[in-house]
Amino acid sequence: MQLILLLCLMLLSPQVATIHRRHHAREMKKKGREPSVGDTVATSSKDFTFDLYRALASAAPGQNVFFSPVSVSMSVAMLSLGARAHTKEQILGSLGFSPQHSLEDELHLHEGFQKLLLELSQPREGFQLSLGNVLFADPAVSIQDTFLSSIKTLYLADTFSTDFGNPTEAQKQINDYVTKQTEGKIGDLIQNLDSTHVMVLVNYIFFKAKWETGFSHKNTQEQDFHVTLETVVRVPMMSREDLYYYFLERDLSCWVVGIPYQGNATAVFVLPSEGKMEQVENSLNGSLLRKWFRMFTKRQLELYLPRFSIEGSYQLEKILPKLGISDVFTSQADLSGITSHSNIQVSEMVHKAVVEVDESGTRAAAATGTIFTFRSARLSSQRIVFNRPFLMFIVKNMNIIFLGKVARP
Q1: Cβ-proximal residues to 52 (8 Å cutoff; 6+ apart), any chain
Q2: Where is the signal peptide (predicted)?
Q3: Is residue 258 domain-shared with residue 344, that is, in the same domain?
Q4: In 10 A of CB 9, how many CB atoms?
Q5: Do residues 396 and 272 both lie within one domain?
Q6: 67-118 pLDDT, tens per residue?
């Protein structure tokens, strides 16, 4: 028998904002100083986030990359609850734990994810973020009570009895659940189930937010996007001149622009100079991101950003061994903390993500933009055009919810 672990996530229609309010200035400075809600998570998995990004990017050179570090690291940490021996050591090692770590350290990690789940699920006006876990298990397989209790308590997981002896019905049950949780955006996550499968573990994340102020549709025009020096494509380029959070990272030769959503999350766009993308990618780490938030200043920018939609679909059983997680996908897997069956392994680990960025939110801009109509002194504008490959972060309380590279909008 095999255990399939599947991760499902969906990012839907973040809408672009351009004017920062004073309270967001204070909040962003505050976030730069204070530990995040998921600080216990960040401490243990900060290298995992960027190591995973680099592994995904190197596996598809020159292609778009988009995934949720929170979703993947949470799923890996949850899997560690049922792993034992060397399988467990590999998983926790990838999350930054030393072989000499204590049980208290592990508990600290899981409680950090629990706190993050509770925080991110708080409803906010103009902002929707649903994050959750669910286990589908065949009643013929006895799941360890300790594992069930842990995933329910620490990861707020739902559990469903599923007859995998009828793969067609099992597949429908799982896909119907995922379809509902992602508001119809992912319908056929699970494919080709057969009677050897006994469990499916799904992590989903659904994000939808309005930007504080949107771009005007009338300002969007077709412009060139330089995929490479030789390849140019036409894209709808949004534009607006306004105050943005801005930092010039001279050491890495890149421009960093921060744009807040309603609900106190922030989109961070990073534009490397020509030929500097790999240098920036290789330098990514948690300290660098925190530095950018500390160094942000409000600056008048004439900003050009493509309207784009990209997606990422990854077979993580082929990627995670590069980060040191390999046994769990082989006959060497020790998942005796999940079930007493000795011949269970993870056969597949699927991660899917979609992001759409457009001008939506201009109605809100009309209502709030008049506040800024009577600015007296205006800083000289700097023109920044995202017309070549760039990076995108979506950050809340210094937790990286999504991370990607737009290589070809």
Answers
A1: 67, 69, 72, 319, 323
A2: 1-18
A3: no
A4: 29
A5: yes
A6: 889 888 988 999 999 999 999 999 999 998 888 888 899 999 999 999 988 8
- The residue segments making up the domain with residue 91 are 2-210+309-356
Contact 399, 37 (CB under 8 A): yes
d(CA 60, CA 191): 23
Same domain, 107 and 248: no
41 and 170 assigned to the same domain: yes
pLDDT digits (tens, 9 = 90+) for 104-156: 999 999 999 999 888 887 777 767 777 788 888 888 888 899 999 999 999 99
What's the predicted TM-score (pTM) here?
0.84
Tell me the C-alpha to C-alpha distance, in Å, between residue 218 and each of 214, 284, 288, 295: 12, 36, 36, 33
How many angstroms separate the Cα of 392 from the Cα of each of 53, 70, 149, 196, 203? 12, 15, 36, 39, 22
Q: Closest Cα to residue 330, out of 87, 140, 93?
A: 87
Residue 363 placed within a domain: no
Give the domain CATH number at 288: 2.30.39.10
